[in-house]
Amino acid sequence: MAPLAQPVSNLIDALSRLPGIGPKSASRLAYFLLRSDEDIALSLAAALQELKAATLFCGLCYNIADRDPCAICDNEQRDRSIICVVEEPLDVQAIERTGSYQGLYHVLHGAISPVEGIGPDDLKLRELLNRLQPARQEEENGFQAPGELLVATNPNLEGEATAMYIARLIKPLGLRVTRLARGLPTGGDLEYADEMTLSNALSGRLEM
Predict the structure, then answer these.
(1) Rounded distance between C-alpha atoms, residue 138 and residue 104, angstroms
(2) Would you say residue 39 has pLDDT above 90?
(3) Is the pLDDT of residue 205 over 90?
(4) Residue 147 in contact with residue 81, Cβ under 8 Å?
(5) Residue 57: strand pairing partners
(6) Strand 176-179 to strand 206-207: parallel, antiparallel, or no bridges (unpaired)?
(7) Looking only at Cα atoms, what is the longest distance across the chain?
(8) Are 100 and 203 in contact (CB under 8 A)?
(9) Over the stretch 87-127, which tens digit does the pLDDT of each residue have?
(10) SS in 3 state form for the chain?
(11) Domains of the chain, CATH where assigned
């Protein structure tokens, strides 16, 4: 069997490292790019470069943004009395699509998972606690401290463990801690939920 040209082999290896892309899918994508118009490959390369060069994490909520603070944190029309805690930036987009939530966010960048070696210290929990300190509240919220923490982690084993940990961590601070209602399927991910399901879960959130 003739060896692959090195540039093709390098691209297949790079694509194979993406989540959900196996060797066969990576090969199909590589050959598609090889056969397609040069503009497609060049625009993809430019988009990837811009992704790394022009994006950052918001210094307040840790969502992916192109400026700091992000557009949501910087929007004075948002309800600063509530912070919604989610696992990933994609979850912010899922909730925003519902149009049912107007508060702020905090992105953990993961969930507690002992099997994968992910503990509380690997998440943005320390940063969440810092946001709830009086000095930071004054700086971020204009003297309006949040009164509610809405925990919107995924309704699976890791998400539930993370939610319970957050509830125990935050309740001594005197904040109301709520959880999304059970309109979401157990074991699912927020990013795959439809807008109506998420809207119902937001409006029917439960005290923790």
Answers:
(1) 15
(2) yes
(3) no
(4) yes
(5) 64
(6) antiparallel
(7) 69
(8) yes
(9) 999 999 999 999 999 999 999 999 999 999 999 999 999 99
(10) CCCCCHHHHHHHHHHHCCCCCCHHHHHHHHHHHHHCCHHHHHHHHHHHHHHHHHCEECCCCCCEECCCCCCCCCCCCCEEEEEEEECCHHHHHHHHHHCCCCEEEEECCCCCEHHHCECHHHCCHHHHHHHCCHHHHHHHHCCCCCCEEEECCCCCHHHHHHHHHHHHHHHHHCCEEEECCCCCCCCCCHHHCCHHHHHHHHHCCEEC
(11) 6-54 (1.10.8.420), 64-207 (3.40.1360.10)
* Residue 202 amino acid letter: L
Residue that has been written with the tokens 């049912």 in this structure: 100
Is the pLDDT at 132 greater than 90? The verdict is no
Provide the token pair at 155: 């309704």
Give the tokens for residue 184.
């979401």
